[in-house]
Design goal:
Blueprint lengths: L1 E6 L9 H7 L2 H11 L3 E8 L3 E5 L2 E7 L6 H13 L5 E5 L4 H10 L5 E4 L11 H8 L4 E4 L6 H5 L8 E4 L12 H8 L6 E5 L8 H14 L4 E5 L6 H9 L2 H4 L2 E5 L3 H10 L2 E3 L9 H8 L3 E5 L2 H6 L7 E3 L4 H13 L4 H11 L2 H22 L1
Parallel strand pairs: 1-2, 1-5, 2-4, 5-6, 6-7, 7-8, 9-10, 9-12, 10-11, 12-13, 13-14
Antiparallel strand pairs: 3-4
Helix pairs in contact: 2-16, 3-4, 4-5, 7-11, 8-14
């Protein structure tokens, strides 16, 4: 089976392919994982200059689309590229590329097409009738969790025949390592050590998380919380909350931004990874934590339910409920799953080989369904 993955988000101008793979690791990670599952994979990447090359068994075609101003024109250009040697399945990254998918389907009507969600938004109501027409020509859509398709279904965007796949957006290559060595390298401690990795904003909801951790610290004075974050519009509110609470004041350290390689060291060092997100298309920090064996205490939202096996490892609690967050932390502290169990769950369901197998199976189903209809 031959599969083409199409990324129409343009590569930054003036950057070499080698540098791009460092900035966008998923550009190689996902196709390589799929290829390991059996299919022959090629990647078409929008760029500002043309180039073709092979890397780790994957054929890459960087396509200059600067002169193609409309989605319809870009779609026709891609269809022209594929027409000589059409793949068995076309995998397009982002539901925002629905119009390009429609143009490709018009030119290559026998080609099965799957669109993958990447935190895409439902279009405004006045555009939905057009989107419905575009999406009638798409065979499947993929979300980290099938429940994330609900907002598109409520808007009436998917035809009854649309196949909804549940496959995580990506994975990661972090490994557990030594917890003690990681703690020594970072100079951190905690019994338990709890780690937050995420922005300090309304959606991530650090204030609910702090309420939950305060409940844990009131029972376990040895608990410590470390917060790694980037954007921080709620930083002043977070600092005020910590300063006002005796259970938080000497037990919470605001780290700020660290290099991504150091995130792995923090994940190895921690006992519990905590998140208070109200919505996520996937949850990359959660994937990184589980890859290192950290036990997740995260909100009960569709993507986190999917990644944790509906709480099979760790605990889920209602978003925005600091008290229930504290209960979940206490429950994990009293009955903490072994790190090996978390890592085994990650390897079996969330690792790149696991994703590759799931995509290979999905592609085979799409090809078979289209062949039967033909």
């Amino acid at each position: 089976m031959r599969v083409t993955q199409l990324n129409l988000h343009p590569a930054p101008a003036g950057i070499s392919p080698g540098e791009l793979f460092l900035q966008w690791p998923s550009l190689a990670d996902i196709p390589e994982a799929v290829a390991a599952g059996g299919p022959r994979v090629s990647v078409v990447q929008a760029a500002s200059s043309e180039s073709r090359f092979q890397r780790h068994g994957i054929d890459y075609h960087f396509v200059d689309l600067d002169g193609f101003a409309t989605p319809r024109a870009r779609g026709k250009r891609i269809a022209d590229l594929l027409r000589g040697h059409p793949p068995d399945v076309l995998h397009i990254h982002s539901l925002a590329c629905a119009e390009e998918a429609f143009a490709i389907a018009q030119a290559l009507p026998s080609l099965p097409i799957v669109l993958q969600d990447h935190a895409d938004r439902v279009p405004s109501w006045w555009r939905r009738s057009t989107w419905r027409r575009w999406l009638r020509h798409v065979d499947a859509v993929s979300f980290t969790a099938a429940a994330l398709a609900h907002r598109f279904e409520v808007a009436g965007l998917f035809p009854p025949t649309m196949r909804v796949l549940s496959i995580p957006e990506s994975s990661c290559r972090f490994t557990p390592g030594s917890r003690d060595a990681a703690r020594a390298a970072l100079g951190v401690a905690g019994a338990p050590m709890v780690l937050w990795v995420g922005h300090l904003n309304e959606n991530k909801d650090p204030l609910s998380m702090l309420e939950g951790f305060a409940r844990l610290a009131a029972v376990n004075p040895g608990a410590r919380l470390y917060c790694v974050f980037g954007n921080a519009p709620l930083l002043d509110a977070v600092r005020a909350r910590i300063a006002a609470d005796d259970h938080l004041r000497d037990r919470v350290e605001l780290i700020g931004k660290v290099p991504h390689a150091q995130v792995e060291t923090f994940m190895r060092a921690t006992d519990i990874y905590i998140s208070a997100s109200h919505s996520e298309s996937c949850g990359f920090a959660l994937l990184e934590a589980m890859a290192c064996g950290a036990v997740p205490v995260v909100t009960d939202i569709p993507s986190f339910r999917e990644l944790t096996g509906n709480g099979a490892v760790g605990r889920l609690y209602p978003a925005g409920d600091g008290a229930r967050c504290g209960d979940a932390l206490l429950a994990v502290t009293r009955h903490q799953p072994p790190r090996e169990l978390v890592r085994e769950h990650f390897q079996a369901r969330l690792s790149f080989p696991a994703l590759g197998r799931r995509w290979a199976s999905a592609y085979a189903q799409l090809e078979s369904a289209r062949r039967l209809r033909a």
